[in-house]
Amino acid sequence: MPRDVRGIKVAAAQMGPNNEGTSREEIVERMLGLLAEAVREGVVLIAYPEMALTTYFPKKIRPDFDQFFETEVPPKALEPLLRRAAEARIAVHVGFCEKAGGKYFNTALLTDRDGRLCGTFRKIHLPGTKAPDGFAQVFEPYYFAHGDTGYKVFDAAGARVGSRSARIAATRRAIARSRSRARRSFSSATTRQARRSRSTSTSSVSVRARTRTSASWSAWPRRASRTAWS
Question: Contacts by 122-130 with C-beta closer than 8 Å and gap 24+?
């Protein structure tokens, strides 16, 4: 019997870097632009990067980091974005820096299509070190406490949605690598088969199927896909 397979359209909103000194208002304007693209594409869930409201300050150790943290959930700065998304019936996953109970967290929130806050996730595995050691390039453990929310799954956008931080860029890179491997594999397999025989249909179909499978993950709006580590 055919399976009952349902799908939703998800957009990975790669923003590019947030430069030092850029205001939250300017950043949210860019986020609203990506949301408008998602609306035109018929997206149901849009996912923004971690720490979307700030520059990526953990690249170095600095004493003035309190300015990058929000004390409200959802952050007040995100109100225009979340309101517009709710009007467009789009669920939102977005990361920000949270200050709560004297601790600092790398947090992500998820809202449903009606704007309801489904919940938050506080990043658990923090890359880098607390102090320079001659090797570390980031210092997230210096700034953030390890998350205390555990890994959660929420009902949102008509699906079961898991919340994680810092996965969009990694997913995009994985997809790009998969496509590149598939193209190389297809090219070399076709060359070998052409030398042995005029019949290349078997290897071509299987590799092309993998290529299509990889491409199918990329159903997000066409926008600058630079990794946003800023």
Answer: 122/98, 122/147, 122/148, 122/149, 123/50, 123/147, 123/165, 123/166, 124/151, 128/58
